[in-house]
Each structure stands twice: as C-alpha cells, then as structure tokens.
User: Fold these one by one.
Assistant:
Number 1:
Amino acid sequence: MNSFVHKTLVVEIQAGVADRVPGLAHLGYDPADPFAVTVVFSHEGRVLARWQLDRDMLFDGLTRPAGTGDVRLRPESLGVERELRMEFFGAAHADGGRHHAVVFVWAEAVGDFLRETYRTVAPGDEQVHLDDFLADVLAGS
C-alpha cells in the first residue's frame, strides 16, 4: 500500500512583530519517504515556504517542546483549545539576524493528520530503500 496522505489546514502566520495573518498549511505524507512530513505554507494563493519536517518531531511538538535548529515546535494553550506553535528560522540577514516566522495551527488537526500517516505506515514499520537511493545517485538522477 503506497497511499499519500494530504490535509490542508487554516493557520495563522506571524513574521517579526507583525500581527498574525491567516494562511494555509498543506501537509503531505509520502510513504516512500516515511520519516518526513512536507508542509507548504501559502497566503492569498502565494507559496510562502516549503519545509520537510521529521514526523516524530512533529508528533512530539504536540505535547512538549521539540527541535533545536531551524525548526522548533511546542504546544500552547488557548483556554480549552490547544495550538501547535511552529517556529522557522531561515537565511541570515546582512545585519546578522535571521529570517524568522511563527505559525500557529490547531493541534488537534495536526494530530488527526498524524494519525492518518500512522495508519499508512505505523511507527517502527518505516523502511528506507538505501540500495534504490544509491542506484539513483550513482545513475545521476
């Protein structure tokens, strides 16, 4: 079974000190790359960024801080609602700072998406076909 999992979620995006603006996060999971979740962020029909996230890190971020590099995740409460706060650090500015954006998404929706991915490829059942990968690299594709 090689079924893709897709979900589009409404998010709020905050860059710098600006207010949050609505956007979309298009989440994708391909069992051929079983450890990764692709997230494409868009606003008013324009793609803002594309990131590949570790599926386990995304799961961990729903309940505790996760990530130490360019991507940092952590849960936040809004009364009875829970958000996943996703921080992304990009290329450096000329002044030494870095591009930085924060995306807020409803945690339950991310959890629903992850449960679908786990039905497709259960944790611990991920397989990486290194021989195929190396053959592709050596063939120049």
Number 2:
Amino acid sequence: MSAVREGLPEGRYGRSADERTDRKLKIVGSALGAVLLGVVGWIGWDYVAGQSVSAEVIKFQVISDTEVKVHLEVRKDASVTGVCSLSSQDKGHGEVGRADFTFAQPESRVDEVVSLRTTSRATMIELVGCQPAASAR
C-alpha cells in the first residue's frame, strides 16, 4: 500500500525566501535605473538648454596658402553678442591659424562667411567653441 501525505511538500508551491529576495532586488534595481536615467536626462537637458550661443560650420573653402573662407551658422539670443573661436590645421594636424569672430547682429540666427588667416595651407577647420561676449576669453 502507498502512504498518502496530508500536507504539501515544503517549498514546492508558493514563493520561497530566495524568490522574495530576487523580487525585491529587481524592484530596487529598476528604481535605481529609473533614477539614473532621470539624472542623465537632466544633465543633458541642462547642457543643451544652458548654451546661449552655439554655432555650426556649414562649409569651408581654402582660398590660398594663407586664407580660408568659413561659412558659419550661429544661433543665439537676439540680445546677446556671441564670440566663436575657429582653428585651422594643416595636413600634419599642426595648427596653422586661430581666430575669434564676434557676432553682434540683433538676430537669433546668423549665417555669415568669415575669413580665417593661416600661416600655411589649411586642410581642416575646427569650431573650438562659442560663448557670450561677456564670458569670452
């Protein structure tokens, strides 16, 4: 004859202590992940929204061994005077020109072609950065 059990085997049905701990860890991990994502998003938004002057190099043309024409698109508040720094490099990645350009137009978007003087033939132009004129270096 076979013996009939009255109770259920321990740990066979329902959650064990390990499963409850795993569930708590998943909840804590999800909460920390959401907080981290929020912090990264806030830092990104603050960085983008905090820049009152920004620019983009649309194109450039090497005119001669001593001059490069650079087409810049500058975005700023209409009441702000912006200063953008450009650097040019030669084939060996040595700097051959650097200059700051001021944009005082009372417009929020300025398209302008500027002339950058160089010491030798440039092959690359880099926009170093832009800032309001009051905090320009």
Number 3:
Amino acid sequence: MGMSVTISAATVQDAEQIFRLQYLCFQSEAALYGNYRIDPLVQTLDSVRAEVTADCVFVARLGEEVVGSVRGSVTEDGSAAIGKLCVHPRLQGHGIGARLLRAAEAALTEQRGAKRFRLEAGHRSEGNLRLYRKVGYEAVGTSKGADGVPMVVLEKAAGTYAATA
C-alpha cells in the first residue's frame, strides 16, 4: 500500500523544503515566459521563513517530503491574496493543488475573516488558469507582475467551493 498525501499547516521547519520545491516547480513558468527572474525563483530562504511565520501557509506531504505548498494573507478590507501554489511535477494532475487551495481558503475564512479570495496567474499558464476556474475563480481583470509578466487576476467569494474540485 502506498502513502497518501496529507495537507497541513506549514511550520518554520518546512521553509527549506518549500523553498526548494518552489524553485523546482516554477522553472516551467519561467521557461513559458522566458523570464527566470520571476518572484518565486528569486525569493530568498529567509523571505520564505518570514512568510511561513506571518502568513497562512499550507503544505502537502508525502511521508516526510513536502510535495506542495500554498500561501495566503488577508488585507484590512477582508480580501485574501493567495499565491505561490505549487505541486511537485511528478504529482501534478492528482487534485493536490485543489486540496491545498481549499485548505488555505478555509483557514483564511475561519481564522482570519477573509470575505473574498484573489489570486493571479500568468496569461499563458493555461493549466493553472484551468485549475482556478475549476475551483470557482473567475477572471476579473489583468495586471502586470513586478517582473513584467502579464497576469490574469481571478477572484471568488469566500465559501464558494466548486463541486468538481
């Protein structure tokens, strides 16, 4: 019998594994845009540690290995920004990303009072956009990342869960 993937709140001890996983996972995004200076690839380990301490961060584990992560934080107006969702390439397509999103959304709503969720995905990132639409997000606009990548801005109301996820 194989191990199952579990979702839990991240601890500061997970920061190094999150950091390494993020670097691995966002290589394909960087290649898609020809830009290896995107934020997930230039973020420092200390910055990841700080996010794990201050933000709502969840990890997916296969045994002791961190195979997925997501981060979220709530602004003063009750909007929750969700970002840096990543799942190890060998485990993508098995619903782990949707499970991570659901865990973050639930915690951000129940523990931090989020009323609405917002996230961004690169305009060419069809797999990511497909996942976000599948779990109830709708495109509400566009923006440009600090790295110059055109982004699609997606939102959904807190408590909105897609039945197909």
Number 4:
Amino acid sequence: MRHFLSPATVSYHLGVLHRAGLVTRARAGRSVVYRHTPAGARLVERRGRP
C-alpha cells in the first residue's frame, strides 16, 4: 500500500500512537514492527459506528 507520506511523518505519528498506548513496537532485524494494542483495536472497530 502506498501512502505518499515521508518517513519522518510516519515515524512521528507512530510515536504518538505508541505513547498513547494504541500500538506496540518490536524490533525485527533492522526493522521495527508496530501492532495495535487491544485499545487500538477497539478504536478501529468503533470507527464505522455512529
């Protein structure tokens, strides 16, 4: 998926989500993998509801 955002922009927003407890991060070799937490998943599930 292409998003056309700069790496700095993505990094900043992932940092905000991490500090809010909505994503976790873990190293995978030279990469960092982000995954949503249960709280983050609940927000995504509610997104489509009125």
